[in-house]
Design brief:
Layout (H helix, E strand, L loop, with lengths): L1 H31 L5 H15 L8 H12 L5 H9 L7 H11 L17 H22 L4 H11 L4 H13 L3 H18 L1
Helix pairs in contact: 1-2, 6-7
Length: 197
């Protein structure tokens, strides 16, 4: 019987850890998918820290201060933390930022308001690169305006959702000996059939 409880206890612990991991993953998505003020980030970190410490709820500001004092042997006042969270104190000292970063185990640079329109994901960098590729394709279409067929293809590629991917595919086709000619003849013949059919 004790063995059964032990196995059930293991199942319960695995379930609890799974839910904790899920909560942390959702929390990470929440932080990265929206612009947050410094106060919102601190409140969110208190929630994550409370869950990680087994409270099942956010740490209170008072608990943060007490834990910080016990673990780091340094602290700030609860009223100062409250002012930071409420936005009454939008900036904090370098020392306070370092202390909070150590306590919450985040980079100090994270503890600032996100700029309007800020996107921490790599996706925004990729989108900027895609915009450069699209601009280059549109410029190419203008450069070759005398060759309407080529200009049209360049414009169509620029308007694709992922122009870069289309160019990389084209590169792969060109690398395979004879494939580009075969595709060109096949597609040209197919276009004629569609036009006459």
């Amino acid at each position: 019987m004790g063995r059964k409880n032990g196995a059930g206890g293991g199942e319960l612990e695995r379930g609890r850890l799974f839910l904790l991991d899920l909560y942390i993953a959702i929390s990470d998505i929440h932080i990265t998918d929206c612009n947050m003020t410094l106060g919102e980030k601190i409140r969110h970190l208190r929630a994550v820290e409370g869950t990680l410490r087994g409270f099942g709820r956010p740490l209170t500001q008072t608990e943060v201060i007490a834990q910080m004092k016990r673990e780091l042997r340094q602290t700030i006042s609860q009223s100062y933390l409250s002012q930071i969270e409420s936005g009454a104190r939008p900036h904090m000292t370098h020392g306070t930022r370092q202390l909070l970063a150590r306590f919450f185990k985040v980079q100090p640079g994270f503890l600032v308001d996100d700029a309007e329109g800020y996107h921490p994901e790599l996706r925004s960098e990729l989108r900027a690169r895609d915009a450069r590729v699209e601009s280059w394709l549109f410029a190419g279409a203008e450069t070759f305006h005398d060759d309407e067929q080529l200009a049209q293809v360049l414009r169509e590629m620029a308007e694709l959702p992922d122009s870069r991917k289309a160019l990389l595919l084209l590169g792969e086709i060109v690398r395979v000996p004879g494939l580009s000619e075969h595709l060109f003849q096949t597609l040209k013949g197919g276009n004629r059939e569609m036009a006459t059919g």
